[in-house]
């Protein structure tokens, strides 16, 4: 992974944040986007993103060929849920690699679940998504959304070699569209894109992230 900046990299945590105060908005209220319910939570947090992130998703949607749609799976993730995900996955990795030091477990975990203190989803700037037809049929992209590195044999990496030609073409199509929207991809997860968070700032060379940890209005 030497060519990939992981979310466990100290440079991510060292990236400053200049919080701009943008609210979280509900992507389900925008007819141009599809929002899938597989990660739905009781209060609908999963369907929320920062307001400019939603605008940029619409730009990305507009860059897709006719008949194709972005299918948003998860946006904002409350900090407690992020911690639960990270702790559960690190426990699995510790069991699989009992001799690995904590730093190595943290590195391995961050290829799939971000350390909570720098997590893009907690900022409201990240989205997990895939592509579908107008009828909601998902396109093949090589693995399921949220497939682990272990179960996909590394096929979850955006540039993975062990996927078919159709899936590769669909990933490239999504990459082009999301780049139009100004998003950056996390290279270990083809479905994960973000804007305005620490990872985005580091990768793009921005002076600071636009978004720190977000909170739903009234929460």
TrEMBL record:
Q: Which UniProt keywords apply?
A: Cell wall biogenesis/degradation, Dipeptidase, Hydrolase, Metal-binding, Metalloprotease, Protease, Zinc
Cofactor(s) essential for the protein: Zn(2+)
Q: Catalytic center at which residues?
A: 189 (proton donor/acceptor)
Function noted in UniProt: Catalyzes hydrolysis of the D-alanyl-D-alanine dipeptide.
Family label? Belongs to the peptidase M15D family.
Site Transition state stabilizer: give positions: 77
Q: Which SUPFAM superfamilies match?
A: Hedgehog/DD-peptidase (SSF55166)
Q: Tell me the HAMAP family matching this sequence.
A: A_A_dipeptidase
Provide the binding site for Zn(2+): 121, 128, 192
Q: Which reaction does it catalyse?
A: D-alanyl-D-alanine + H2O = 2 D-alanine
- The protein's organism comes out as Streptomyces lavendulocolor
Q: Give the main EC class.
A: hydrolase
**What EC number(s) would the UniProt record show?**
3.4.13.22
Q: What binding details are noted for the cofactor?
A: Binds 1 zinc ion per subunit.
Question: Any idea what this protein is called?
Answer: D-alanyl-D-alanine dipeptidase
